[in-house]
Write a sequence for this structure.
């Protein structure tokens, strides 16, 4: 795709998209200028932007005015919620391979939101800054760090979500009662490999962008590196396809297939129990665990699939679609990603009895009328596959 390699001058468009969009960091007037620089010389009919760009721009301007407040509230809730996820999931009675992977997922999600808080405050709430104050040398380098950091951590979270789906599918299809604790080393290895491989996978991002100075070294912004613009912007195009398309759509397709496979297994198990008129507490717990993880997977698909499709269409339809549709939904994709990173705690509490019991004991036992009788939830005696219920 031949995308224009002009300086990156807008605000951050897509938290978990290609790093190019993550480092678009200027004010709205510059974005509008790029899209309407010839409007004075064009007829009213020709001024209309393709793909309803004018209407989408109105939506974008409205949402951008409130995005900072919403994103910071979501991030503060999500940071707190993921801290509680980590505390609860690492208790001895909660220890299982899938819970270990969910802990690694919570860490990655929390890192994304920690980085987003100062970014959102500076770019969306500090509206009275002049350009020289807003685009300082130090802030430009923080922006570059923030973009790399969020891309790496979100990539890690994405593939840990895929790992959870695969692990649960194997546990459901090939149950092994002895694997509840014996699978812990393999789960930890899977987490370590995901963190390492994703960090290496993002190397093209690291070399595609750099900090450039403008207006006699008084303004600093993130821009494409010299290496990225060589050979007609080959590296920039590769980077876009890798991170805006492949790293989004491939996990989404894999999770869709795994989710439907898990649903099929649940349906067949329920039919079998109804036919035999049997069903132990262990079976019910097993099903609740699978349903909880399916909720996590479906939430991921709901928030990530749209941005992957927009990226794919941008690659297929070119700059007009990218500028008029993709960029105008930038903050919307941001908030969907942040919500996905923040609400797993709610899913765990609403669908996992063991998580609720452990959470209540850890955080509310002191308020119990009979606080001396409060004891940690005991180790489950039934086979739970490899997850918490």
């Amino acid at each position: 795709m031949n995308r224009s390699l002009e300086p990156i001058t807008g605000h951050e468009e897509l938290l978990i998209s290609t790093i190019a969009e993550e480092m678009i960091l200027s004010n709205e007037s510059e974005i509008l200028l790029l899209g309407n620089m010839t409007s004075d010389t064009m007829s009213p009919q020709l001024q209309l932007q393709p793909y309803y760009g004018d209407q989408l721009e109105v939506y974008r301007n409205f949402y951008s005015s409130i995005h900072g407040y919403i994103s910071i509230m979501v991030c503060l809730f999500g940071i707190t919620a993921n801290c509680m996820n980590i505390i609860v999931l690492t208790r001895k009675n909660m220890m299982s391979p899938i819970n270990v992977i969910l802990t690694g997922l919570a860490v990655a999600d929390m890192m994304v939101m920690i980085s987003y808080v100062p970014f959102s405050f500076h770019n969306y709430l500090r509206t009275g800054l002049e350009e020289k104050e807003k685009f300082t040398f130090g802030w430009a380098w923080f922006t570059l760090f923030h973009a790399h950091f969020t891309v790496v951590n979100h990539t890690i979270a994405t593939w840990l979500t895929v790992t959870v789906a695969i692990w649960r599918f194997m546990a459901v299809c090939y149950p092994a009662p002895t694997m509840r604790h014996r699978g812990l080393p393999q789960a930890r290895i899977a987490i370590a490999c995901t963190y390492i491989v994703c960090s290496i996978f993002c190397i093209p991002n690291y070399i595609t962008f750099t900090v450039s100075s403008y207006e006699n070294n008084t303004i600093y912004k993130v821009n494409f590196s010299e290496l990225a613009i060589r050979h007609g912007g080959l590296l920039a195009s590769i980077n876009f396809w890798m991170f805006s398309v492949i790293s989004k759509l491939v996990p989404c397709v894999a999770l869709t297939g795994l989710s439907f496979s898990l649903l099929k297994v649940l349906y067949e198990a329920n039919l079998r129990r109804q036919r035999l008129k049997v069903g132990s507490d262990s079976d019910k717990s097993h099903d609740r665990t699978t349903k909880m993880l399916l909720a996590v997977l479906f939430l991921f698909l709901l928030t990530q699939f749209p941005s992957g499709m927009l990226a794919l269409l941008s690659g297929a339809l070119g700059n007009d679609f990218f500028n008029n549709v993709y960029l105008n939904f930038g903050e919307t994709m941001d908030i969907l990603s942040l919500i996905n990173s923040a609400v797993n705690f709610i899913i765990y509490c609403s669908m996992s009895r063991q998580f609720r019991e452990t959470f209540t004991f850890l955080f509310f036992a002191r308020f119990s009328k009979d606080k001396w009788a409060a004891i940690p939830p005991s180790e489950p005696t039934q086979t739970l596959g490899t997850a918490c219920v």
User: Anything to note?
Assistant: The beta strands are 209-214, 219-224. DSSP finds 16 helices and two strands in the chain. The two ends are 47 Å apart (CA to CA).
